Amino acid sequence: MDEIKLRYGVNPHQSPARAFVPDRKLPFKVLSGAPGYINLLDALNSWQLVKELKALSGLPSAASFKHVSPTGAGTGRPLSPDLAESYFVSNAELSPLAIAYVRARGADRLSSFGDWIALSDKVDESTAKVISREVSDGCIAPGFEPAAFELLRAKKNGTYPVLEIDPGYEPPETESRQVFGVTLEQARNNTLITPALLDKVVTVKKQMPDDARNDMLVATLVLKYTQSNSVCVAYDGQTIGIGAGQQSRIHCTRIACAKADKWLLRLNPKVRALDLRKGISRTDRANAIDLYLEEDATEAELRSWRLHFNTAPAPLTREEKQAWLARFDGVALSSDAFIPFRDNIDRAARSGVRYIVQTGGSSRDEGVIRAADEYGMVMVFTGLRLFHH
């Protein structure tokens, strides 16, 4: 039996802990550091996501994970100058894999603080330099160039976990887990996310540009590895908002769309031109911008973010925000199960969503389709539920 000892389980008092396979070798090697229980949950889920995302897109792919759900995922699609500035990488020379991680990390910089990173390709020095600047808990990839490994191994005073996965590993067809001493077993969710999922268009409007199709598929694939209930919003080949683990689907949609709104607002020239103090950390920059865009920030919060600016900026008014968001009308949204009420459609429309993927099969499908038609959206029924627990 091949096994490794873990620092502890889900919590520090849950010890001893280990990871093992009874009849074969572990599919990964620990090159540096000592991963924990949650690290491995993030590593093994995120690796599956980036492996499938690369197969789907044909591009190097990356994911940023926290607590067994992605905070963001992206591909190596080139960055526009505005997006590069928004991601704090305007002057950086980035490989396609580094771009993929910049996109994944930048999708939701607050949530990705202290993330687990998954990378679809052998890690090059360009990607390692990006990771070395960020607060992260570890990474997994199919290989590491020597210079890249040295950069990563030096993080956290040499304790940063670096895992090398066997890219050819295929797990058994069934998987099991124990809960309260009871073993549960099921067939693995090995259904692939392919363009054929978008064949059943149920709205009056049916045309989907190639970019929209790609974003619809990216959002749907990400949901396959997101704790349910979940909704994902995608744009420009990456996620821009994920609402995960909510009991109500409208809460998933509100969270995902609120995050998407902030992502889109960070592209606003007024936001990109904010006069932030030199020398503050990337984390403080991200937090200051997030609070600047927060409509319900308290006075104490406002005082804290103003400290990061040379001069306190005038806020973006609600009208300015709405005018900027109105520029975007090609955003895609996917739901891991059927959408039961039109309130999800109404909220999505305010964030520029014009393409929706959902399972379908609700008794209220007719009203939801009618709402999509009112907004001129394209809605697809996949017939595929993607719950993940």
Keywords, separated by commas or semicolons:
Helix Hairpins, six-stranded mixed sheet, 15 strands, Cytidine Deaminase, domain 2, 389 residues, 3 domains, 13 helices, alpha/beta, 21% strand
Structural overview:
The chain is 34% helix and 21% strand. The mean pLDDT is 94. It starts with a strand and ends in an 8-residue tail after the last strand. The chain has 13 helices and 15 strands. The strands form four sheets. The protein has a six-stranded mixed β-sheet with strand order 3-8-7-6-4-5. It has 389 residues and is of the alpha/beta class. It has three domains: 2-170, AICAR transformylase, duplication domain (Cytidine Deaminase, domain 2, 3-Layer(aba) Sandwich), CATH 3.40.140; 189-265 and 325-381, Cytidine Deaminase, domain 2, CATH 3.40.140; 271-315, Helix Hairpins (Orthogonal Bundle), CATH 1.10.287.
Would you kindly provide a brief summary of this structure?
With 389 residues, this protein is α/β, with parallel strands linked by helices. Helices cover 34% and strands 21% of the residues. Helix 1 runs antiparallel to helix 6 (210-223).
**CATH superfamily annotation of the largest domain:** AICAR transformylase, duplication domain
**Structure summary, number of beta strands:** 15
> What Rg, in angstroms, do the CA atoms define?
21 Å
Global structural class:
alpha/beta
Element string (H = helix, E = strand): EEEHEEHHEHEHEEEHEEHHHHHEHEHE
Which term fits the overall shape? globular
What ranges have pLDDT less than 50 throughout 5 or more consecutive residues? none
Termini Cα gap: 27 Å
Into how many domains do the coordinates divide? 3
* CATH fold node name of the largest domain: Cytidine Deaminase, domain 2
Mean pLDDT reading: 94
What is the name of the CATH architecture of the largest domain? 3-Layer(aba) Sandwich
Number of helices: 13
Beta-strand proportion = 15-25%
Helix content class: 25-40%
CATH class of the largest domain: Alpha Beta
Spatial strand order of the main sheet: 3-8-7-6-4-5
**Main β-sheet description:** 6 strands, mixed
